[in-house]
Design brief:
The structure is a homodimer of 341-residue chains. Chain A is an all-alpha fold. The first copy, chain A, has a single domain, classed as Orthogonal Bundle (Farnesyl Diphosphate Synthase), CATH 1.10.600. Helices cover 71% and strands 1% of the residues of chain A. A two-stranded antiparallel sheet of chain A has the order 1-2. Chain A is globular. The mean pLDDT of chain A is 94.
């Protein structure tokens, strides 16, 4: 499934906000944002491509329109969500020791760990200053405070999710519930904040805002499971991640967590043996994927992603908003669950 | 000079706020705050001592009282300032590869780098959530937004300062101006935010709030220069830092920066030679301190600290507030410039 057409409307406008932020000319950022977002290459030369789909910002704007709001008022929130996501990627790449993202060296690989930690902190700070710009777009200070609470609540969950992610790396006894708890925090929280902020900035009905929060959480789960699937069976060219990087990093993705539970006898022994090796190497990856394929964990994972997609659709219907308002949100939901990159 | 008596009034109240924050029971923090603040030891056993003087929070409350405000309303701001300071120490210790603080292993030494980066992010998030609690104390949302701008502005400067600090480590050509630019960002900014937030929460006169901001900046400079002096000539027992740690880390403190400019001939050659060694060892430290002593850089540094203390006092007088209001602030200013720890 290709990127929905409306991305070409929203993405450039979020990018304009982000470009204004990147222009703050901070020495501590020193081209980090332009590089991370794919506007310049390692040599500082301009690049054509923008890396990243800006799905969180887009989700926020689509949600704002769905409730009948003026999405342009919500642009600082969309940019703030992307800045939080960017900060978390810069720090996660250090924490996970990831050397590449979108076929490019990660920020810490180029700037060193110390400056990358600090640059992440600066980006995190900018996310808040960007959100405060909502005041200039005519949003009341009461509402901006509400937005900040939602965003910071999500950030706290993000840290909790990352804590679990690091902790789980060395474990092979993660339950399916543990897995869902992890991704709900690590991915669901910021997606929930995205739909919630969009709805909040578009109108004032608390029950509807709460419903949008729940829609975002479900979409986040579908998105992450899809990510897990693409991380093993996706094409490196489209995902931008080194093939099967999740396996090398012992990430407790749904296919892997489920395989530990489903595997029996010899398969289980082989799987545990491979995951307990000090380093998982190229031939090990193929062996692991062979076992995953034999256990049909891909179909299981796809059905779980689909469940959360359908759950999100159910909540979307419960909003009782006019179908024309919900068209983009539904299309985005389908993209989250079926995307190939 | 001992800690002014009013610390015994404000510190326990800031601690109460901080204890409430530490009780949020986040897995990602996992005793990090209780340990960092000295309420438990490495084994998780309760300790008597509180580490850290909580000077930023105290400065905020003293400023609030100076303008005639109710300092208890400002307690969430005082706690938020301390949380920002704590987050920055947790990350700085990783960035600077510091293994000890207050005679205890640093957070990353105990929890590992990955979890320490993430814990710092969680603490930073809590600082904002704590500041938002001002709303519950009856502060208007307009004012809370103003406070957030001040705090985030300081955080951005903090990152800029840390960037310079890391960059300067390998350089021996730092000018006195470079040094002041660095400490104005790394220390001055958060102190300026402390006095500014206190004043802002205590009343509404913009010119006076601006003046308090400037007072804090000057106090920050005096505080940092004093810190530089104590880092070389202070007693390890009182400062809590390993003796002459700043020298081993090649920190561009005022005594060192000035010595590079003042040294001539053989002294200069020896000094540069020592600072360009791959590792600065114990005998090197003594040689460096000998040169610093011969160049009388301590007296120079003390006079510069005193200048900024006097400048702060001048601005304090310019507030035209009743002398009884300014008593604590002046006492705190003197402590900043003359403290032995």
């Amino acid at each position: 499934m290709v990127l929905p057409a409306f991305f070409s409307v929203y993405r450039p406008q979020i990018e304009t906000e982000l470009k204004a932020t990147a222009k703050t000319n901070l020495a501590s950022l020193n081209n980090v944002l332009d590089y991370h977002w794919g506007w310049i290459d390692q040599q500082g030369q301009p690049r054509q491509n923008t890396l990243g789909k800006l799905v969180r910002g887009t989700l926020c704007l689509v949600s704002c329109r769905a409730v009948g709001g003026d999405y342009q008022q919500a642009l600082p929130a969309a940019a703030a969500l992307e800045l939080v996501h960017t900060f978390s990627l810069i720090h996660d790449d250090i924490e996970d020791n990831s050397v590449e993202r979108h076929h490019q060296p990660t920020v810490w690989k180029l700037w060193g760990e110390a400056q990358a930690i600090n640059a992440g902190d600066a980006v995190y700070t900018l996310s808040h200053l960007t959100l405060l710009q909502l005041v200039k777009r005519g949003i009341s200070t009461d509402k901006v405070i509400h937005c900040l609470k939602v965003l910071d609540g999500a950030c706290l969950e993000l840290c909790e999710g990352q804590y679990l992610d690091i902790t789980y790396e060395d474990r092979v006894d993660i339950s399916i519930d543990d897995y869902f708890n992890l991704i709900s925090k690590k991915t669901g929280a910021l997606m929930a904040a995205s739909t919630c902020l969009g709805a909040l900035l578009g109108m004032a009905n608390p029950a509807l805002i709460e419903l949008f929060y729940t829609i975002g959480r479900e979409l986040g789960l579908a998105y992450q499971i899809r990510d897990d699937i693409l991380g093993i069976w996706g094409l490196e060219k489209s995902t931008g991640k080194p093939a099967r990087d999740d396996i090398i990093k012992r990430k407790k993705t749904l296919p892997v967590v489920y395989s530990f539970h489903k595997a029996q006898g010899r398969d289980k022994k082989r799987l545990l043996g491979l995951y307990q090796k000090p380093v998982i190497e190229e031939p090990d990856i193929s062996r692991i994927v062979e076992i995953l394929d034999a256990l049909e964990v891909r179909a299981f994972s796809e059905s779980r992603a689909n469940e959360h997609y359908l759950q999100a659709l159910k909540y979307i219907e419960e909003t009782n908003l006019p179908p024309s308002n919900l068209k983009e949100l539904k299309e985005l939901a389908r993209f989250f669950a079926e995307r190939e990159y």
